[in-house]
Amino acid sequence: MTADPTPQKRALRAELRERRRNLTQTERTEAADGLTAGLVALVERLGVRTLSCYLSTVDEPNTRPFVNWAREQGLRVLFPITRADGLLDWTTATDQDEEVVGLFGMPEAVGELLGPIAINEADLILVPAAAVDSGGMRLGWGRGYYDKTLGSMERCPPVYGVLFDSELLDEVPAERHDQRVDGVVTPARTVEFAARDRHHRRI
């Protein structure tokens, strides 16, 4: 690994983004079914009542069927709202059809803003990722929102990355501020890693 992994990160993100764009609609549908089953099983196993999730873009693993299931079960779902100061705000949207485009062109839920500290109420945090390696290191998309959020939490619940199967890699380039995840959920499987340095809150 070079002293400055930024060029490696940029190249890997571009490769992974292109792979996602080349998936067929059949592959996307099958992936969504498998991912939803894996996320439901994880939530039920952990006894989660409040979780954070995000609204996926067209090219990302589809989180929307899972979000709909969670709402039907009466679970509280926190959605991230990007802020210009680099922090994430949160909302619990009640209208699943209402969305806006966020600061960086990503879909975001519409609802009352709860402030950055609302994430401390979550029993489980589901995060987007370009890739995760075999040690749990997450490669995000370069904005740093989740790294900053996770790194600032005093007592963090379990954090799982949401990926396509091919995006669980042997190693990803990382910098000091990058945050590891406790596991990943892909359409085919759920993988858990060794305990992280973060102080975890039991649920």
UniProtKB/TrEMBL annotation:
<dbReference type="InterPro" id="IPR024185">
    <property type="entry name" value="FTHF_cligase-like_sf"/>
</dbReference>
<dbReference type="InterPro" id="IPR002698">
    <property type="entry name" value="FTHF_cligase"/>
</dbReference>
<dbReference type="InterPro" id="IPR037171">
    <property type="entry name" value="NagB/RpiA_transferase-like"/>
</dbReference>
<comment type="similarity">
    <text>Belongs to the 5-formyltetrahydrofolate cyclo-ligase family.</text>
</comment>
<dbReference type="Pfam" id="PF01812">
    <property type="entry name" value="5-FTHF_cyc-lig"/>
</dbReference>
<keyword id="KW-0460">Magnesium</keyword>
<keyword id="KW-0067">ATP-binding</keyword>
<keyword id="KW-0479">Metal-binding</keyword>
<dbReference type="GO" id="GO:0030272">
    <property type="term" value="F:5-formyltetrahydrofolate cyclo-ligase activity"/>
</dbReference>
<keyword id="KW-0436">Ligase</keyword>
<keyword id="KW-0547">Nucleotide-binding</keyword>
<protein>
    <recommendedName>
        <fullName>5-formyltetrahydrofolate cyclo-ligase</fullName>
        <ecNumber>6.3.3.2</ecNumber>
    </recommendedName>
</protein>
